[in-house]
Amino acid sequence: MKTIKAYHPLIMTTHKFILIQTITLIITGLPFFSKTFSFLAYYVGYPASIVLKNNEALVTGLMIFRTLHWVSGFLLAITSLIFAIVMLRRLKELSIWPEKWSVEAIIDGIKQMKLHYIENKPAKFGKYNMGQKASAWAMYFFVTALIVTGFILVYKSANAGALSLRDAEFIGTLHSFSFIMLGIILIIHVIFALLPSNLPAFKAMFQTGEMSIDHVKEHHIYWYERLKKQKIIKDEIEEK
């Protein structure tokens, strides 16, 4: 079975790292978002409080979570920045751009997703379908908002009076909103990624980095046509 390189090792590694850091950010941010999730910090802080002999399991857990949250945010910011710089030189070639720009294209994109995910039939889209592209753009936006507002809040905590109460509340609300949206998008992204119809793409992203040409031709026709124009799969076609 002939295959085509679907994901560069840099993209695969970055995707995994960003996924890990995003999940860490969400989990460590939950106790600060709502007291409902304070039990997470308590259970993490309980063993540490025994070692420290301070009998402050919740406070200790919150300190650990805050530290992990800040470290994860910093690592996510650095990784995202480096990845963005590397990708800038091939910005026009990225598969996150729509093949067509129109209302009809959006309607057709929804129809193609229905064929792919619900009816489990071959659909017409590029390397990514409309839902994947939309989630990618949404994640870029909310991750950026989360990182920027997060750094502002850290700066505020280190410099008392750096922001007015009104500005601090606005930044905090924006940070919380970005946090919620990122969590929702991540859950949806993971659910769809684990569907049987996405198995080849899942294996390509997390294991092999490659997809079979037959699968690309059947399920990613626009991407297949672009590869033909670029003569990337010319040899495989001629051999057949």
Give an account of the 3D structure.
With 240 residues, this protein is an all-alpha fold. It contains ten helices and two strands. It has one domain (3-239): Up-down Bundle (Fumarate Reductase Cytochrome B subunit), CATH 1.20.950. Helices cover 74% and strands 2% of the residues. It has a two-stranded antiparallel ribbon. Helix 1 (9-33) crosses helix 6 (165-193), helix 2 packs across helix 3 (57-88) and helix 5 (130-158) runs antiparallel to helix 6.
Name a few traits of the molecule.
240 residues, mainly alpha, Fumarate Reductase Cytochrome B subunit, two-stranded antiparallel sheet, 10 helices, 2 strands, 2% strand, elongated, disordered C terminus
Question: Short summary of the structure?
Answer:
This protein has a two-stranded antiparallel ribbon.
What topology does this entry show?
Blueprint lengths: L2 E3 L3 H25 L4 H15 L4 H32 L14 H16 L11 H29 L6 H29 L5 H10 L1 E3 H7 L1 H9 L4 H6 L1
Antiparallel strand pairs: 1-2
Helix pairs in contact: 1-2, 1-3, 1-6, 2-3, 3-5, 5-6, 8-9
